[in-house]
Structures are given as structure tokens and as C-alpha cells.
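hiii, so i know i said id send this last week but things got crazy w the move. better late than never?? heres the sequnce for the chain we talked about at the cafe, plus the structure i predicted for it. fair warning i was half asleep when i ran it
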Amino acid sequence: MKKLNLFTGAFCAAALLALSPVTHAQDATKWPEKPVRYIVPFSPGGVSDGVARLLAEQLSKQLGQSMIIENKPGVSGILGTQTVARSPADGYTIMGGTITTHAVNPFFVKSLSYDPVKDFTPVALVGMVSNALVVRADSPFNTVQDVIDAARAKPGALNYGTAGPGTSQHLSGQLFQSITKTTLQQISYKGGSQAMVDLIGGQIDLIFETVAAARPMIDSKRVKVLGVTSSTELADLPGVKPLAELGVPNFEMQSWQGVFAPAGTPQPVVDKLAHEVAVAVKMPEFAAKLRQLGVEPDGRGSKEFAAFQKAEVEKWRKVVQEAGIKAN
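okay and structure toks below
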């Protein structure tokens, strides 16, 4: 009996040790031991998809394991994001998250199937994406102040195109209205490209479009750029000042691209992945490729990214509430 008790006790002790945080930490040092599933909650071809493919290729080299991209598009990125929230927190499912999926969706979607803060662990902030306020080439508006004056003279008469509720174009427009105390009409499209076509055709008055998407039209002089939504001038648009310096004080709207894992993913795995992302974005060649997509490299790690995400949620909560927008 004594031998049996000793054996049983040893077995239980071993079982407890296997479940302990120490063992998880030890296992995490070997991560990844198999391919990692990298979910993109948007269609192929967009900025999120481009960032994910660049990052997956580079991380595969650094980690010695494949990162397999899986596009799961759905309304405002909900389908793919929900999939990750419900995946095992073992480090083998991660995702590319954005301001839409992980900051503002709760304010636009009733009964959202995930909590963008509680259901995820922020891993790393890959980079920031700025928009440009553009009008068609023959528009009577030549300055940001021209737009503000026209909007104040006839509230609701001007309209702006977006790629849908909760997108960076929409948020830029809402913040613009909130600060300038104006009213613009949102015209929602299924994608930014159609909005640009209608802008050039005269069907809409203005767009807050991502710099990368607007750049070809700016270079061909089919549109005029009046300002950018970042807090400082952008290297890609030299001489174009931020809206904050052009009559819209304290304006700053930047979308972002980040990596998230399901809540409960072992911290050593999160830290290792965050470190590798930071290494990647600091590489000159990789950073140059990000900038070609309109993404300014960042590289903040888990704790800093988590604090940033929570601040973004609160910032846009106030903007949406002030605008009187109700979730649908």
C-alpha cells in the first residue's frame, strides 16, 4: 500500500507539474514546432492582406516554420476575427487586426460576437496607416478651410465617400465633423475604389482615402490633396500639411495594422512573436515594402500595443457617441 501511495503521489505531482505555468513557459521556448495559421479577416488584395503576406513570409524565415495565410472576409472583418477569438490559445492561430476589427466594431455592430479587448492578446503593432483628404481636380475647394466654410454655410449639403461604416474613411469624416462642428453626408461604398471613381466623376465631393490608394490619382493630377490625417507630414506626400495645422485642431486619425492572438495565449509565445515582428519591421528592406503599402512601420510590443488599443477604443467611443451613431 505504501508503494502504491508513493506511486500515486508521484503521478499526481507529475500531472500538476505538466499543467503548471513553468512547463508552459518551457514549451513556449520551442514554439513554433508546426505551421502557424495567420488569419486575415478581409479579402485578398487589400492593405491588411498585403501586410499579412509580407509579415508571414518574413516571420517564416526568422522562426523556421511556415505561416499559412487564410483569408476569412466578412462584414467589417467580423467572421475572421470571431474565428480567432474561438481558436485554441496555443500560439498556432494568430490574426492581422485593425482599428475596425479591434477598436470600433462594437460601436457599429449590435450583439458583436466577440469582445475586441477581452477575447484577444495584442502581440505587436506592425504599423500606422494615414489618410489624405482629397477632392477632384476641378473642385472649387482648394484648401481645407474652403471645405469647412462650405460645410458650415450649408449643413448636410456636402457628401464624402467611404468603404463602409467603421472604416478609416468613415472615422476620418466623423472626427472632422466633430472638431469643425459641421455636418457631412456619408456615401457608403463596398470599397474605396468605387468611391474614388465617383469622386472623379463628380458624384461625391470629397474622400478621406488612404495615402497608398489615393497616390496614383494624386500623381496623375486627377485629384487634389488638401491635407493628411496624421499628426505630422508624411514622407510620401512632402509639403502636404496635417489637417491639425489647417483649421482642424487636434485632428489625428490613423488606422493601424497589428497582430493579435486569442486571449490566454502563453505570454512567452506572445513575447517571442512580438520580438520577431519588431526585428522584421526594423529591417530597411521590409520597412520599405510596408511603406509601399502605405503603412508606416511601428513595432510596439504586447504591453504598449495593449495600452494603445484601449486608448483607441475610448477615443472612438466618444467620437461615435457625439455623432449620435447607433449600432445596427
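btw Residues 6-26 have pLDDT under 50 and may be disordered. thought thatd interest u
miss u guys!!
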